[in-house]
Amino acid sequence: MPVKVWHVDLRRDSAVPLYQQIATLLRADIEAGTYPPGARIPSLKDIEHDTGCTPKTIQRGIGILADEGLVVIVPGKGTFVAER
Q1: Does some domain include residue 56?
Q2: Which domain range does residue 23 map to?
Q3: Looking at the 3D structure of the chain, how many domains does it have?
Q4: CATH code of the domain containing 38
Q5: Over the stretch 10-59, which tens digit does the pLDDT of each residue have?
Q6: To 10 degrees, what angle do helices 55-67 and 18-32 make?
Q7: CA 20: distance to chain centroid?
Q8: What is the pLDDT of residues 72-83, one digit of tens each?
């Protein structure tokens, strides 16, 4: 299943924390169908490379999506868009 390359520019001067910005961007891509149910979202390393954020910040953003039921984290495999 093809996945787009995820390059973003986060607003580091924003009052919105970086982890929330990451969650918002990924949520928008999921809702737009860029990452359909079952698709793997970009890896932690890919997001780290593309954003310059720390792994902890990225994990926190992805954790928001997991708490919302939008993604499922599979240890050792990746993070996948939840089936609806």
Answers
A1: yes
A2: 18-81
A3: 1
A4: 1.10.10.10
A5: 888 899 999 999 999 999 999 999 999 999 999 999 999 989 999 999 99
A6: 50
A7: 10
A8: 999 999 999 999
